[in-house]
Design a protein that fits this description.
Blueprint (H helix, E strand, L loop, with lengths): L1 H14 L5 H8 L3 H13 L4 E4 L5 E4 L12 H14 L6 H13 L5 H8 L13 H16 L1 E8 L5 E14 L2 E8 L4 E6 L3 E11 L7 H11 L5 E6 L4 H8 L5 E2 L5 E6 L4 H9 L4 E5 L1 H19 L5
Antiparallel strand pairs: 1-2, 3-4, 3-7, 4-5, 5-6, 8-10, 8-11, 9-10
Helix pairs in contact: 1-3, 1-5, 2-3, 4-5, 4-6
Length: about 325
């Protein structure tokens, strides 16, 4: 993504007097135009970069400028490496690994062992069990479109099952609640919308149609945040004693409240969505939802439908 590409360019320029924009574009698999936008961003951050014209020209740091090696501490560098490795669990790019290697190269030898220990203490794995090659392909394609500021189009199925063709200006990839979303300006609706990547089909880049990035209004930004934030009611579970191990596994021993009849209560706030319904049903018949009542009714209805399917089993 853009952040690690900017850091990679800075590190590269610290180690080389000059490099051509075409070489940077090929290295990071983006357009030359994108590289020059990156250079403008780095300049705006206070790191002076100069473009030299001519046969032996290129891009380099301003003469006499040196980036303080201590601008980032080892702890801060370790945090960046941990974040990159975690992002790579669901969205892997060759640039991620190259940047990790470059950051490792600036750590002094006497601190290397301690640095490696710090970067291997935590890994946040965003990837689903079994992987998802289709999701990774969409992320890579959308990242390319974001870098080049070009339109994308796709077939979209919303939560109500309505199918439509969309042409959009991609602005931001968002990972929220185990799901990837694209924030984009929809040309059909003429407003910013959030699209769940899993609901996209036939995703294509329109390389011939570029756009100038828009700034969503505060209202549009807040509406987008609210769409990602479902209601979070407090759910009261009752676990039979024989299912206590399930409660401990999912919620932790400290969350269990004993009941006189030998069962256990757990109170937990959860975003109410399809994941929650599936999660409750996966706990089996030794677990009961006591509150809220509307959620209890939803689970009852779904359980009855599942039972009906198996009662009418036509399998031979």
């Amino acid at each position: 993504m853009k952040l690690e590409r900017l850091l990679s360019i800075i590190i590269l320029l610290l180690n080389r007097r000059m490099v051509q924009a075409k070489e940077l574009a090929e290295r990071f698999e983006v357009s030359v135009r994108t590289i020059y936008r990156d250079i403008d961003a780095i300049n705006a951050a206070g790191i002076p970069i100069v473009t030299y014209q001519g046969t032996n020209g290129g891009i380099g740091l301003s003469e006499g400028y040196r980036l303080d090696r201590n601008i980032l501490t080892n702890d801060e560098l370790a945090t960046i490496v941990t974040a990159l490795r975690s992002i790579s669990t669901s969205y892997s790019k060759e640039q991620h690994q190259r940047l990790v290697e470059k950051i490792n190269s600036v750590v002094l030898p006497e601190h290397e062992e301690e640095f490696q220990h710090k970067t291997n203490r935590v890994l946040i794995d965003y990837s689903p069990w079994g992987g998802s090659k289709h999701l990774r392909a969409k992320l890579i394609l959308l990242d390319e479109a974001l870098d080049s500021c070009v339109l994308v189009n796709f077939t979209y199925s919303n939560a109500e099952g309505e199918v439509s063709q969309r042409n959009v200006e991609p602005h931001m990839l968002i990972l929220k609640g185990r799901q990837w979303y694209l924030q984009a300006y929809c040309l059909e609706k003429e407003e910013f919308r959030l699209f769940k990547l899993k609901r996209m089909k036939g995703l294509r880049i329109d390389y011939e149609k570029t756009f100038i990035r828009r700034n969503p209004t505060n209202q549009e930004h807040n509406e987008g945040k609210n769409k990602l934030k479902p209601s979070t009611p407090e759910v009261v579970f009752r676990f039979q004693d024989k299912a206590r191990h399930l409660a401990e596994e999912w919620f932790g021993i400290e969350e269990l409240l004993p009941v006189e009849d030998g069962s256990w209560l757990v109170k937990k706030a959860y975003p109410e969505n399809e994941w929650l319904y599936s999660f409750i049903l996966s706990l089996g018949h030794h677990v009961e939802v006591l509150e809220p009542q509307h959620l209890r009714k939803i689970i009852t209805s779904r359980a009855e439908k599942i039972a009906k399917v198996y009662k009418n089993d036509k399998a031979t």
